[in-house]
Amino acid sequence: MKQIFSKTLSLALAAALAMPLSSPVVTASAQLRQYDDFEAITSHVDTYVPQELAVTGPSGDITTTSDAYYITGTSDPNQTLTLNGEEVTGRGIFGSFGVYVTLSSGENVFTFAQGGQEETVVITKSSASSVTTTDTITSMFPSYKSAHEAGSTVTLSCVAPSGAQVTASVAGAHIQLEQVAATAVEGVPARFKGEVHIGAVNDLVELGVVTYTMTWNGSTKSFTSAESLYAYPEGETLLIEMRDTSVPVFADGTTTSNFVTTAKIGAVAEVVGQNELRYELAMGGWVVKENVLPYGVGSAHNQVSDVTFSSTVYGERYIFHGTGNPIATTWQRNGVLHVELHNTAGIDSIPVANSNIFTDVSISEGTDSVILEFSIDPDKTLWGYVLEYEDGVTTLYCKYKPELTGNPSRPLEGIIVGLDAGHGGTDPGAFGTAKLMGPVEKDITYATALAVKKRLESLGATVLMPEKKDTKSSAVDRMQASQDEKADLFLSLHCNSVAGNGLRATGVEAYYYESRSKSFADILSSYVAAGTGRTDRGEKWNYFRVTLSTLSPAVLLEMGFISHPQEYDNMCSKRGIFDTANAIGDSIIDYLS
């Protein structure tokens, strides 16, 4: 089915490119459109790739134990490029190149020549492993707010030069850390650990950050952990609050277990145990400490006094007036929306008489919880849902299916799209074949996102996205804005990359988590692949943070491989960005049809 669709779309694209540009017109088959606003959509694009001979990777002569190496660089696309006398093929439209070379023992000399210029790099293959030393402290615990019961012992740890003297200080305690394992060479990164006893406290207390002090090579340096330690009274129950829009709740305390549910931001849960990285919840399941905040101690009990109903043209709300913000287990399948509010009592009835989605709801009691089973009208669509919390009021928002206007020139009028340009600020994302001499992932995703925003707005949509690529907002901030505005779709743009031979992978792929997002991912991948001439690698399931939304279909789109010179140059080009923006706009029209 997908192959037939992609072939049909490619033929339609070829026909469209042969026609003169005109006002946007929806085609009969796949809503493939033509646009005459190239400059308007791409006027902001500044992703310039240098077009002169340079070897960018490696940046100089190196020694390695590898049997092969992926050499990358830039060149003049209008002149022949040779490597040791042989022509380099497969360059990008701006001259970016990548060659995967086999290494022999000893020195391997690679000379690139073009237009009378030469660039030579020497890669020495050694049988001895190279040794990397350090003179700093990294990987300091805690990197997240971590709360521990009074009377317990907490392991403090960091990575420092082997052979160094390392101490840790927190809340007036000073602990000598021990190197975990001996190393053959001093100065290489090694793990250091030590234990601190948590003293008595009367409430949840912030003990502060941990200061790690290292004496090494005749000098002393101090570093502090990214986050603080917290303590709570012995025998009390720790309460935590979800800090992410969607927090994965895992079945057990390991890193490979399945999800139980995704808890929503603001939900409060009781903790019954913990390991180094996760808290065990009274409701069942575990959450990663990085995704939550210590909230207090005591009980998370929520006593509901009444439930009210309200609706708009976009969705409906079930408002639970209570005393707490209960964590919930939710899922939707087989025509039922399941909502289990933990640590909750007092719900006797749910007002669904005026619902445009549900026919009825059943109420039952679980173990210290209330289980609500909403039956979805078979003739209606529950587009998505989300739980929201504010001062003891829990709101279940259920979203109606968005509808196209029927206006051929502005079919997306009234549609809200959350758009995320992956990475930004101090996070560059992946490096392309030009490395730091050319655009990196954050540059490409932002330039493309702006073009997509312009295209969607030209089709009538409202688009939510951060204003500047060099302001690194968190995934929570980017997703929360879409949740607050009840976006109909959420799309995160990224560039793919592979280690080693960058020539071995090409194409477009789209990731989803919730089943409601699967078809959106499939259509996006197909359209962008056809629109740009790249391979369609299809939709793939994964639990990236930006794909965990239950409110609306959410997809992470890998537009192409930044590690491949041809795809890198195309993703940097105005034409490539224009084609991508158009394909995304067309795919959304098709999906909502």
Computed CA radius of gyration, to the nearest angstrom: 28 Å
Query: Could you say which overall geometry the principal axes of the C-alpha atoms support?
Result: flat
The secondary structure category is: alpha+beta
Tell me the distance between the termini.
18 Å
Largest sheet data? 7 strands, mixed
Describe, in plain words, how this protein is organized in 3D.
By secondary structure, this protein is α+β, with helices and mostly antiparallel strands. The protein is built from seven helices and 38 strands. Strands 9-15-14-11-12-13-10 form a seven-stranded mixed beta sheet, with no helix packed on it. Strands 34-33-35-38-36-37 form a six-stranded mixed beta sheet, sandwiched between helices. The chain has a five-stranded mixed beta sheet with strand order 2-8-7-4-5, with no helix packed on it. Residues 1-30 have low confidence and may be disordered.
Q: What does this entry show, briefly?
A:
The protein is an alpha+beta fold. The protein is flat.
Note the topology.
Layout: H1 2-18, H2 38-42, E1 54-57, E2 62-64, E3 68-74, E4 82-83, E5 86-87, E6 97-102, E7 106-114, E8 117-125, E9 146-149, E10 153-161, E11 165-170, E12 173-179, E13 189-197, E14 205-216, E15 219-232, E16 238-242, E17 246-250, E18 259-264, E19 268-274, E20 278-281, E21 286-288, E22 292-297, E23 302-303, E24 306-311, E25 315-321, E26 328-333, E27 336-342, E28 344-345, E29 358-366, E30 369-376, E31 384-390, E32 393-399, E33 416-421, H3 441-458, E34 462-464, H4 475-484, E35 489-496, E36 508-512, H5 518-532, E37 536-541, E38 554-561, H6 565-572, H7 574-592
Parallel strand pairs: 2-8, 9-15, 23-28, 33-34, 33-35, 35-38, 36-37
Antiparallel strand pairs: 1-3, 3-6, 4-5, 4-7, 7-8, 10-13, 11-12, 11-14, 12-13, 14-15, 16-19, 16-22, 17-18, 19-20, 20-21, 24-25, 25-32, 26-27, 27-30, 29-30, 31-32, 36-38
Helix pairs in contact: 1-5, 3-7, 5-7, 6-7
